[in-house]
């Protein structure tokens, strides 16, 4: 599950998992570099343009 919305905090993610009855054994977080973020934005834009 990827937390990408207006409330991206870990606490919000854990609350949503609990609300849905989803159990987990481990949790990893990763902060993307500016380069990764830029590449993902460019790719998403290209995908939208190719598949309107």
Structural account:
The protein has 52 residues and is an all-alpha fold. The protein has one domain (10-50). It is built from 2 helices and no strands. It starts with 9 loop residues before the first helix and ends with a helix. The model has no long low-confidence stretch (mean pLDDT 83).
Quick recap:
This protein has one domain (10-50).
What is the topological layout?
Layout lengths: L9 H10 L14 H17 L2
| Average pLDDT over all residues | 83
Radius of gyration: 15 Å
Assembly of the depicted chains: single chain
What is the number of strand segments?
Answer: 0
Strand content: under 5%
Distance between the termini: 26 Å
Q: Helix coverage percent of residues?
A: 40-55%
Which structural class do you get from the secondary structure elements?
A: mainly alpha
Give the ordered list of helices and strands.
HH
Overall 3D form? elongated
Q: How many alpha or pi helices? A: 2
How would a textbook summarize the main sheet? none
Return residue spans where pLDDT drops below 50 for at least 5 consecutive residues. Answer: none
Descriptive tags:
about 50 residues; mainly alpha; about 50% helix; about 0% strand
